[in-house]
Amino acid sequence: MSSVIYLIEGGKALQLVKRHIEEVKRVRAEVRLIADELGITEGQTNPFTGVLASVVFKRGAVPEGWTKPDRKHGVSYPKKGSPMAARFAAQVGYPDPAKVISDELGIPVDVDYSRGNGVQGSKCIGDNPFRPCGWLYCSGEGPFALFAPDVVSEVKALTEKGYTVEGGAASFTGLIDGCRQIEDEEWDIVVAQHALQAKRESAVAGQEGGTQ
Length: 212
Description:
Elements: E1 3-8, H1 11-38, E2 42-45, E3 52-56, H2 83-89, H3 97-105, E4 110-114, E5 120-124, E6 134-137, E7 144-149, H4 151-160, E8 164-166, H5 168-171, E9 179-182, H6 184-209
Antiparallel strand pairs: 1-7, 1-9, 2-3, 4-5, 4-8, 6-7
Helix pairs in contact: 1-3
């Protein structure tokens, strides 16, 4: 089943997304600091927590205490027991957005079901089982939204097939405090409008800056 988008207009969701953005800024600042110390401009970060996971050194310039570049991505990792390995391990990433959204807003990311003939099952729902929920935002000032599994549609589909849905998914109504479900195309419009407004403001600022 697909995911759905909720426009964030207030409530707990607004507090959570703003907190996430501040955490992202903190983590990225630490990543930049480490990158500057190493003199590198490329690397890979953890997709769930944002911390620096590996780096790319210039060819032939891998310093002592680092692994040779791997063949797939050309990245190096700090060797176990090295000072930089301890530095990497000490990074504190931001909380996994999917877990925060699911736990704090009560959005199920899996569904349990059964049928009278003894059939039982459980499955993840949403477009991506590794990232069933996430934040969407145009800037640190908004607009804000979140995506999550279409729980209501999933429950309906299973019920129509004769299954009994159990657990949190069975009672989930699709209503989230401070949020309003919108179509994907509506969010596309919100993003386009925000980009257009930013472009217009930039043009005006440029004209004013050139006026003496």
